[in-house]
Write a structure and sequence with these properties.
The protein contains six helices and two strands, in the order ααααββαα. The protein is globular, with a radius of gyration of 18 Å. It has one domain. A hairpin with a 7-residue loop joins strand 1 and strand 2. By secondary structure, it is mostly helical. The two termini are 33 Å apart. It binds zinc ion. Zinc ion (ZN) binds next to helix 4.
Amino acid sequence: MDSLAHFILALIAGMAMGLHRKHKVTYIAFISFLAVLIDLDHFLVPLGYTTVYRSMHNVYVTMIAPFALFIASYHFEKNTRSDRWQTFFLLLGVMLTGHVIADMIYGPVKIFYPLDDRDVYLPNIDIQATSDFTSEVIGPIGIGMTAYAVIIFFGSVVHDTLYHMRHNGLQVREAFRRSLSDLF
Ligand SMILES: [Zn+2]
């Protein structure tokens, strides 16, 4: 997927999480821009740093690092008035994970590289209404978009849970229940 599409999808993810109610859209756009930067790894092959295309599109860069920094920020900001860094890393993690999922719509990605260089695909389900009805009901694009929506949903629930803990003084479990009951 091209970089502009990644930027727009990340921006939509930030808006869908409701962050524009508290933060400026330019702030969400800035983090969306950061989530596109892993595409700079396209240049690593011609520069001779790696032989694997999209080498930074892995779970360590896009999921484990941002979510570890999110948890660390949460602990550092626990008794402060700011929730700036935990929000930043949560949003960045959602956008980077979404970036890799969006790329997987178009083909396999080596998401465990460099520890393991196997190709990982989205589940290959192809459901068509009838054999001569060419438009599929479920295919790679639908599955990729569903996975993207699940990541946004996860981010929203975590964000709302933190909000209820911080502003309503609730314990994790109660805050989580409240964030779900706000949705359903
Ligand atoms: Zn990419």
